[in-house]
Amino acid sequence: MEFPSTAFAHEALDFRPPARQTAPVVVASPHSGSVYPATFLTQAAVSLAALRRAEDAFVDDLFAAAPALGIPFLAARFPRSFVDANREPYELDPGMFEGPLPGPLNHRTTRVAAGLGMIPRVAASGEAIYRGRVPSHEIEHRLETCWRPYHTALTTLVEQTFRQFGAVLLVDAHSMPSSASGVGARDRRVDIVLGDNHGEACDPDLVEWAETWLASQGLRVRRNQPYAGGFTTQRYGRPSIGRHTLQIEINRALYMDEARHEKLPEAARVQALMTGLLQALGAEAATAFQPLAAE
């Protein structure tokens, strides 16, 4: 499949198409965006540095080889602290907003309770992001300009890939702080967490294969703890109908100085590992999906 150069052109998106899609895989990064609207920064009660700690920094670079491997790549340009594309569209804390709300909000989730809804209430440090309440019209504005373009493009890529190959594997690319619960204090050597929504989002053989491949490269891998996946794995992971989603969380300490928000020289090795993983995963998925494509 060939993609026109204007496909999914939108200021909120970074779409990098392959010259021709040759693997039944799509790679997406919902949290590596770093373009902060000026109006958002004026609303913020915390520094830009504090906001940036929520980013999956440089993940788009780590998976940058995807198009050269025949795999389409999609990333959000907007930052996670502005709009979290890995949340339901109305997964929001109503207490954050001033003015009439757009219908019922899904506010009884653990993520909203933690301040991490589609429009987050708190920064990675736990501090309140906003100086005061957010005008309620911002909900639809941010959905229309950020969340919907991202998921419209991602849905299209997933469905086009499915039609071409008979099945599709969506790699949902993320990073995790080295201090994350269950990763830092107790086991500092956890390098990768694979999330498949506890077996609901991806063929277990593919997950097992990915874990084995990563471990063979000297990486310590854990499944679903502390990250099993969010909205993306729940929405796009339907293995019973040939739509598979695998979330990959990379320990940031492997490739960046988290305090300075800078790449380390080791980032080149991690990028090479992710390139190797995508290449091998594309071949494995193509073999696994071949009977489906023939049906």
Write a brief caption for the model.
The protein has 295 residues and is of the alpha/beta class. The chain has helices at residues 38-43, 48-52, 59-62, 110-113, 137-165, 204-216, 231-236, 267-294, and strands spanning 13-16, 25-29, 73-76, 97-98, 134-135, 168-176, 192-195, 221-223, 243-251, 256-257, 262-263. Helix 6 (204-216) packs antiparallel against helix 8 (267-294).
Shape: globular
Instruction: Please trace the helix and strand order, writing H or E for each element.
Output: EEHHHEEHEHEEHEHEEEH
Count of DSSP H/I helices: 8
Structural category is: alpha/beta
Tell me the number of structural domains. Answer: 1
- Segments where pLDDT lies below 50 for 5+ residues? none
Beta percentage is 15-25%
Assembly of the depicted chains: single chain
Sheet of most strands? 7 strands, mixed
Q: What integer is the average pLDDT?
A: 94
The top-level CATH class is Alpha Beta
Helix content: 25-40%
Count of β-strands: 11
Please give the order of strands in the largest beta sheet. Answer: 1-3-2-6-9-7-8
Question: Would you write up a description of this structure?
Answer:
- The protein has a 7-stranded mixed sheet, sandwiched between helices.
- The two termini are 20 Å apart.
- With 295 residues, the chain is of the alpha/beta class.
- 32% of the residues lie in helices and 16% in strands.
- It has a single domain (13-288), classed as 3-Layer(aba) Sandwich (Aminopeptidase).
Key words describing this protein structure:
295 residues, 7-stranded mixed sheet, two-stranded parallel sheet, 11 strands, globular
